[in-house]
Amino acid sequence: MPPLLAWTQLLLNSYRYWTGKDLIDREGTPFVQSTRLFFVPFVVVSHDNQPDPHLNYGNQCALALWEMEWEDLQHTPSRLTAEPMNQAERAHMLQQAANQGIITDYRGIRIARSGRRFLVEHATVWNVLDQTSTPCGQAAMFSTWSPLPLNETGRDPHCKQ
């Protein structure tokens, strides 16, 4: 099975393991399920389990929200989805999810590639498990987000002015 299809199966199986529910309709082949996951009207994003995890999956909604192309996403450390001032809070949340397996109703501030900030609400974050039930990454899903001001000064925090 191609790596992307195998990863989406791990995402879906792990979500079912932690919640007892399916994230999407699981009928059809892994290809059909992967396609369905890519086009759902909510964000699904994940990263690997390296010491500095990199994003390894984002569906169409995630790519649009973070303003990235697939290739950009694959080369992005997941910590960069939060501003530096919010990275410690994000790391704490991910550690909580790692310890518990899943957290629900997470709320946090994230940042798109352009510097546009948004508030994520009611997110579910779970450990992605491989075929031996060993954690191999983490994933998140959410359907509620709202735009925020660029920063306290009203300027893009990534632009030197």
- Gyration radius (Cα, Å) is 16 Å
Largest sheet: 6 strands, antiparallel
Looking at the overall shape, the CATH architecture is 2-Layer Sandwich
Under CATH, the homologous superfamily reads PAS domain
End-to-end separation: 49 Å
Sequence of secondary-structure elements? HHEEHHHEEEE
Helical residue percent band:
25-40%
Number of helices: 5
Return the structural class: alpha+beta
Q: What is the CATH class name?
A: Alpha Beta
Overall structural domain count: 1
Overall outline: globular
Low-confidence stretches: 153-161
> CATH fold name, please?
Beta-Lactamase
Beta-strand proportion: 25-35%
Describe the structure.
This protein has 161 residues and is α+β, with helices and mostly antiparallel strands. The chain has one domain: 2-Layer Sandwich (Beta-Lactamase), CATH 3.30.450. Helices cover 32% and strands 29% of the residues. The chain has five helices and six strands. It has helices spanning 3-19, 30-39, 60-65, 70-74, 87-100, and strands spanning 43-48, 55-58, 102-111, 117-129, 135-142, 144-148. Strands 1, 2, 3, 4, 5 and 6 form a six-stranded antiparallel sheet that branches. Helix 1 packs across helix 2. The radius of gyration is 16 Å and the shape is globular. It starts with a helix and ends in a 13-residue tail after the last strand. Residues 153-161 have low confidence and may be disordered.
